[in-house]
User: Which sequence fits this backbone?
């Protein structure tokens, strides 16, 4: 019983259903008021919706998800620190990797990743050019994994990217309230409001961006089928602004 | 505000507005209140396109129940009209 009522939506839903079921007959037969009976029926309907939403909540607690995210980030961060990598990552679409989009962090500072045209092997260390220095570390990011959650590949337009980003951030992960995307002159500007995973100025996020920026970059890369790079990222209160450069 | 909370709040405001408006217009048929509330629920649910697949499936189940009730009321009304009551 305690477990049944642990979820606030279920608690609210059952309360509304019981209150509506008691109030409606009273309003209909005793008070003889149709508007009050309608209020009782509306309460029952809302109760059904709340109970349905309670059953749709994730199985894993947010604390467990945070733990797993932090573990993955710290492991990748340790690898980047050990290799002394400070370059911004390039997000590649799935067609350039083996089935899953990934981020590439070049080992050299003067890397020209615009030359990547062919599919790269699915390894941790990959060669992307003809020169011996054209090496990079390929890592899976939060954005890479979340592409699997999309039912269809996003359309290569601002609206298509915005729809896919909103679906992941607000609908599936529930880590932001809304996302607005504007694509112009080879740059994609994203404004995420109500962000609940802040940008932190740590090694990992300086290279790969915050988890939210990483999702926007991975979706943009997948939609356009081109490599992209997070050019800028800033946060003011709960609003994150991300500028993504499309590498033509 | 999270998407579930926003959705529940939108439904509550819509139901409140519809009930107050119909009461103000002097509507005394409970079936009319019920049908308009169901239509409002379906429209608002369709507008929330970013729900995750599990929530969408759960709400689709609720929609089926409400739509069934809606059809029953419409069928009763049609039978009343046909029988001339």
Assistant:
């Amino acid at each position: 019983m305690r477990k049944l009522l642990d979820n606030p939506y279920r608690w609210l839903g059952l309360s509304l259903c019981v209150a509506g079921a008691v109030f409606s007959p009273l309003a209909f037969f005793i008070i003889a008021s149709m508007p009050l009976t309608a209020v009782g029926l509306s309460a029952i309907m809302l109760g059904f919706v709340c109970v349905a939403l309670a059953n749709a909540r994730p199985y894993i607690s947010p604390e467990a998800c945070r733990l797993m995210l932090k573990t993955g980030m710290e492991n990748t961060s340790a690898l980047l620190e050990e290799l002394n990598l400070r370059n911004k990552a390039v997000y590649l679409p799935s067609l350039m990797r083996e089935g899953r989009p990934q981020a590439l962090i070049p080992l050299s500072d003067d890397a020209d990743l615009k030359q990547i045209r062919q599919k790269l092997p699915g390894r941790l260390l990959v060669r992307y050019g003809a020169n011996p220095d054209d090496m990079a570390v390929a890592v899976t990011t939060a954005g890479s994994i979340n592409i699997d959650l999309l039912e269809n590949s996003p359309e290569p337009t601002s609206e298509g990217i915005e729809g896919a980003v909103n679906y992941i951030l607000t609908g599936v992960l529930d880590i932001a309230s809304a996302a607005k995307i504007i694509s112009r002159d080879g740059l994609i500007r994203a404004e995420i409001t109500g962000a609940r995973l802040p940008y932190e100025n740590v090694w990992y996020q300086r290279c790969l961006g915050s988890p939210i920026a990483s999702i926007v970059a991975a979706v943009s890369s997948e939609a356009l089928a081109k490599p992209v790079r997070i050019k800028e990222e800033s946060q003011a209160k709960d609003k994150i602004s991300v500028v993504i450069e499309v590498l033509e | 505000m999270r998407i579930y909370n926003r959705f529940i709040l939108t439904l509550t405001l819509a139901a409140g507005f519809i009930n107050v408006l119909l009461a103000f217009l002097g509507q005394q048929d409970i079936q009319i209140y019920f049908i308009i509330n169901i239509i409002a629920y379906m429209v608002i649910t369709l507008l929330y396109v970013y729900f995750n697949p599990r929530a969408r499936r759960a709400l689709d189940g609720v929609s089926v129940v409400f739509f069934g009730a809606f059809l029953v009321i419409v069928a009763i009304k049609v039978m009343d009209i046909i029988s001339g009551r």
Remarks:
- The mean pLDDT of chain B is 90.
